[in-house]
Design a protein that fits this description.
The structure holds two protein chains of two kinds.
Chain A lengths: L6 H37 L5 H30 L6 H25 L5 H33 L3
Helix pairs in contact in A: 1-2, 2-3, 3-4
Chain B lengths: L2 E3 L1 H8 L3 H8 L3 H8 L8 H11 L3 H4 E3 L4
Helix pairs in contact in B: 2-3
The chains are: A mainly alpha, B mainly alpha.
Chain lengths: 150, 69
């Protein structure tokens, strides 16, 4: 059996994975109260259920917003619209979502220092996406210049 | 943009239509429209050369520098 891996197949796989992650994030919303209750029971530290629940809900909503932005971007790529302003907007949205999640987990880190690592990873992700956004914006400028060179 | 394209003036002087000029210069009417309406970001020397040849003019007759306020 010879399965040839193409850009189209890769894009389809990315879209499926994003959709699966979106469904998981949506399902996680229903499990957050149970998860936080379980965490307080097993952590052995002072209870932070309320704070943790709020942080997780906020992070989940931001994550869903970022995933929707990613799906929109993948739709545009499938339509051969790569260097368009809407993609730059989606990347900006994803990057700000990451930074917002980082800020939320920094607050939580005052009670549970380990949360700082989650904040660091989210901030780093946001930074990388921001650099890609800047690259895309430069690409859009170049494409416009090329389109308007007669 | 401080560089203005006065193509319509030269076209009126030479009594040539946009469609005819586009065909003679070998660019699409849409691109000629972009050029005429000052929407272009750059002009290739080859395009400028063809325009000057067909309109029998100098680049300065088509392009003009206007100081920005």
């Amino acid at each position: 059996m010879n399965i040839k891996w193409t850009a189209k197949k890769s894009l389809t796989l990315t879209r499926i994975l994003t959709l699966v992650t979106l469904v998981l994030a949506g399902a996680a919303l229903f499990c957050i109260p149970v998860m936080t209750e379980w965490y307080d029971a097993v952590s052995g530290h002072e209870p932070i259920r309320m704070m943790l629940t709020v942080c997780l809900y906020l992070s989940a909503f931001l994550g869903i917003a970022a995933l929707l932005g990613l799906l929109k971007m993948l739709d545009n790529i499938a339509k051969q619209q790569v260097f368009v302003n809407q993609n730059a907007f989606c990347l900006r949205l994803i990057s700000w979502c990451c930074f917002a999640v980082a800020a939320i987990w920094i607050v939580l880190a005052f009670r549970r220092p380990l949360a700082f690592f989650v904040a660091f990873i989210a901030a780093f992700g946001g930074l990388v996406v921001r650099v890609v956004k800047n690259l895309l914006e430069m690409g859009i400028t170049l494409r416009e210049e090329n389109d308007y060179t007669i | 943009m401080p560089i203005m394209v006065n193509l319509d003036v030269m076209m009126a002087k030479r009594k040539i239509s946009a469609g005819e000029l586009a065909e003679r210069v070998d660019i699409t009417p849409a691109n000629l429209s972009i050029l005429k309406n000052n929407k272009a970001k750059a002009v290739r020397f080859s395009t400028l050369e063809a325009i000057c040849r067909e309109l029998d003019c100098q680049p300065g007759d088509v392009l003009e520098y206007v100081k920005e306020e």
